[in-house]
Amino acid sequence: MAILIKSEREIELIRESCRLIALVHEELGKMIRPGISTKDINDYGDELIRGYGCIPNFLNYNGYPASICVSVNEEVVHGIPNEHRILHEGDIVSLDAGLIYKGYHSDAARTYGVGKISAECQKLIDETRNSFFEGIKYAKPGYRLFDISNAIDEYISKFGYGIVRDLTGHGVGTQLHEDPQIPNFKQIRRGPKLQPGMTLAIEPMINMGRGDVEWLEDDWTVVAEDGLPSAHYENTILITDGEPEILTLLG
Ligand code: MF3
Ligand code: CO
Known about the structure:
CATH architecture: Alpha-Beta Complex
Distance between the termini: 32 Å
CATH superfamily: Creatinase/methionine aminopeptidase superfamily
Number of helices: 4
Radius of gyration: 17 Å
Structural class: alpha+beta
Helix content: 25-40%
Order of helices and strands: HHEEEEEEEHHEEEEEEEEEE
Largest sheet: 5 strands, antiparallel
Strand content: 15-25%
Bound molecules: 2-amino-4-trifluoromethylsulfanyl-butyric acid, cobalt (II) ion
Number of strands: 17
Strand order of the largest sheet: 10-9-11-16-17
Shape: globular
């Protein structure tokens, strides 16, 4: 239950794993348009990951049946790709993807608008992303883990959005989900000290309405209970001596 401090060698491997998933996201982002199915996204993502000689880490994770999580509108995360689920103009779609490179995981998520979307949806997407960057202002030595959580909450709550509390960020390494859990809402304690060599996935999941969620019958898809849109933004980061390195963004 300890937060692992990665060696230089491990960091190199995680860095490469993360660089590759960033490339996958860049390619997937280009294909988002009305008329494609969520399965089209999954299939291209799976092909790209395997093309790099890597393994999609979500596939079969606790029985999850696909390589890319594709979550549309009120779906928060863990949507299951389906050839009959077609993207329409005005939808928003969250893509969550990860891979294993030489035994090391990466994990990242982006939310896109499909064609022209409402100003409200664009703002939700933008502020969800911004909340990640607010959070990681505290992702360095001298601060503690939940300083990140508190910063995300403080930033995003002022818009009246709902923070999803049932899911959290996490450590990333030889496992997709390592300690610690990283909530996106205010904590009473400040949590463990941040130290160089920690690799963490910070992933605010933000609802336009309330933060309450429920699980669909498929046992995977997490949806906003009130049916309003939800956005997700995630990067795997490295704690260093100074500013954090955002491993799943291309330089
Ligand atoms: N990025 C997702 C998370 O941290 C990974 C989901 S894997 C799945 O929860 F298999 F559960 F979809
Ligand atoms: Co994650």
